[in-house]
Amino acid sequence: MRKTILFLSLPLLVALSQCDKYSNKNTNPILGRYELEGRDNTGQLAFAGTISFVSIEQNHLKGPCKIIRQQNAPEELFEKDGNCEAVIDGKKISFDSAPSLDDAGLLLEGEFDGEAIRGTWKLDAFATSKPVGTFDAVKKE
Fold first, then answer.
1. Pick among 2.40.128.120, 1.10.10.60, 3.40.50.10540, 2.60.40.10: CATH of 32-139
2. What is the pLDDT of residues 64-100, one digit of tens each?
């Protein structure tokens, strides 16, 4: 009887170990949803929003983002509700809110510390500006 129970439980154990193997399949810690807040060099809130990195292909992160311009934002800062892209190099991340345009985008350059992305932001107009302020993108999911 013991041998029968042991023999019948063996396939169940193999199946459970396979499920665990596939559930932990190479999930990159950078993927997820972030709450974004950007401040200008005087410390005033310039924009807020969310960034969701849903896929990574080689070193390109992609996903939807929403950037809401605040009252004190520079006139060149446009709101965004659509797809965004970022390039990752180790812990460094370069984010572009308008990847298909040569200008009119918000550029974020920062580092991922496991819980958030922090760095500086610029405006991509006719010429890319110097850093205009700092941002924090805190991971929520």
1. 2.40.128.120
2. 999 999 988 887 777 888 888 999 999 999 998 876 6
Q: Which residues of 82-115 are buried (b: 16+ CB within 10 A; e: fewer)?
A: eebbbebeeeebebbbbeeeeeebbbbbbebeee
Domain residue limits, the chain: 32-139
Find tokens 């984010």 and name the residue.
Answer: 95
For the CA atoms of 27, 109, 84, 56, the dihedral, rounded to the nearest 10 degrees, stands at -20
For residue range 93-117, list pLDDT tens digits in order. Answer: 999 887 666 555 788 999 999 999 9
CA distances from 136 to 8, 47, 64, 89, 119 (A): 53, 11, 17, 18, 7
CA dist., res. 65 & res. 81, Å (int)? 6
Strands 45-53 and 55-57: unpaired
- Does the pLDDT value for residue 38 go beyond 90? yes
